Amino acid sequence: MVYYFTSTTVDPAAVLYVGKDKFEMPQQFHADNLSSAHVYLRLKPGQEWDSLPVALVEDCAQLTKANSIEGNKKDNVTVIYTPWSNLFKNASMATGQVSFKDHKKTRTILIPTRQNPIINRLMKTRTVSSADELFADKENHLSELRAKAREKAKEARKEEERLAKERREEKYRREHAYEDLMKGDDEGDGGGKRSNQDGWDEDDFM
Prior knowledge:
The protein has helices at 54-66, 116-123, 131-189; strands at residues 2-7, 14-19, 29-31, 39-41, 77-81, 87-88, 99-100, 107-111, 127-129. The protein is an alpha+beta fold. The chain is elongated, with a radius of gyration of 35 Å. The protein starts with a strand and ends in a 17-residue tail after the last helix. Residues 21-27 have low confidence and may be disordered.
């Protein structure tokens, strides 16, 4: 089972996910050196994992601490968070145990004590769903991101084609500017000569 919580510390509100069992959920936040549930936060478009609002990070960390049997009773609990893509796990690791591909892509937050107002606020928003529903929701979300990425790439190609056309036209204008100028002069003076077809004769000037 998966628990959903809503953090209203940001606008729009953020959704947090917590696995009932530590092996059921993707992980992003977890208590350092303590057994705990792992809290997952889906980032909003444009959000960066290492520059999240402090209040939102604290909500996630408090929820992580509260879902650790040992950590919930302790003070000064360190919570580590990292992007999902940076997590590393293999068959030899214990259930719930994870490591990191790059330790530089991790951040920590120290939680001195449990903040009941935060936990109570989050608990009022809790809903329960199955892991299958969460994974289906995740796939839908990824599908939407892929569709947006394709649309963005399409728009980028159209813009590049527009710019390329403008460059071609500008190049043509530069290369043919002299020819167009001379053509205009020829048309203006009739080639610089007059003939008897214009209705006069050279004898008129004698």
